[in-house]
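Team,

Forwarding the record for the chain on the shared tracking sheet. I've put the sequence and predicted structure together so nobody has to dig through attachments.
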Amino acid sequence: MVEQYRGRARALAGAAFALAGVVGAGGCTAGTGASADDRNGGPEAVREAAHVLAGAGSSRARTAMTMATGGTRVTIRGTGGFDFRRRSGRLRVVLPPDAAGAEEHPPITELLTPAAVYMKNRGANVPAGEWVRIEPAKLSDGNLVTNGATDPLIAAELLRGARGVAYAGTEELAGTRVRHYKGIADLSVAARNAAPQARAVLAAAAKGFAGPGVPFDAYFDARGRLRKVREMFSFANKGQTVQVASTTLLYDFGAPVSVTLPPLGDIYAGSVE
């Protein structure tokens, strides 16, 4: 959806294949000024986010992404669930109407797996009812933004490259008190330290973005589980810098998540624009 960004940012905006608004955290901040090391593990807790999620098993997820360039801002949002042990999930991604207010694109179903992402209702030149299979490690951004929804576990794996972590106090998030940390994640470091299934994806992203540093805001509950993460990406497109904000919200831990891959005959074999 967005690897076609670099050459398709304008098409993304026009067809609403865009990157989407941030899920708000709400609540007030308290306790600012403390060192991250003074608060429940600090930097190491941030870097171990993916490991803790694997122990949590699964959760429901909401994703949101915003892409801004040339004074234009477009958004898409997703809802679904993710199994952190199996590293797979299912999202329903809703696209906004285009700039002319044309009819909305049908929701896109995305199946996330360690090896590939499958999408139904992808649009472009894909026949209705057929699926598209994309390998994240072959995309220049590692699929962190390409399909309008960052894989929740990859978003957590990216935090393995966290540096300059600062504690920013506590907030109320969906009725849960969370600790807020800010910092920069180095994609190259994250790729080296990530689980084997995530290394190629993050290594591709480290090469594809404008720089290796990804500013982030991460929020953890009392059990050390990542509840929300907002990551900022940027890349160059025809002389302009495109800013992307990707936000993932995790909740209802332990909820069952079912991912059934489409039959081979339902996967589109042609080229995707």
